[in-house]
Design brief:
1 helix, mitochondrion, mainly alpha, 92% helix, 26 residues
Length: 26
């Protein structure tokens, strides 16, 4: 269960990071 939660957090954090990078590139 803990592993699944960690995977979700990593995916969420990765999506946010990509979104921030896209904003910075503007």
């Amino acid at each position: 269960i803990g592993l699944a939660i960690m995977i979700v957090f990593f995916k969420l954090y990765g999506d946010i990071s990509i979104y921030k990078i896209n904003l910075l590139s503007l």
